[in-house]
Amino acid sequence: MMLALIATEALGQVIGALVAAVLFCWLCWKAFKFVRHPELSAVLCLALLLAVWGFGIDSPLLKLTSVYAALFALWLWPAGRSWRRQRPLGHRR
Description:
Number of strands: 0
Number of domains: 1
Largest sheet: none
Strand content: under 5%
Structural class: mainly alpha
Distance between the termini: 55 Å
Radius of gyration: 16 Å
Number of helices: 3
């Protein structure tokens, strides 16, 4: 019974961190898209990773969330650059 409880808690942390990272990256994307620089959302995700690991925060959920956000940043950077190329600054949609 104890093993099932530990496995459930670990699975909940992994899924919870994944959901939190997706929401964080999506909010960063929307915020930076509003100012027409969505590629900078990747920089914010990487800054989160450095802040969490640099200041020694002991929360395993927060550490896992920051790692997932940094992995999503690898996708956000080229996606933001592509979005920017398709929509020049003079063109609003």
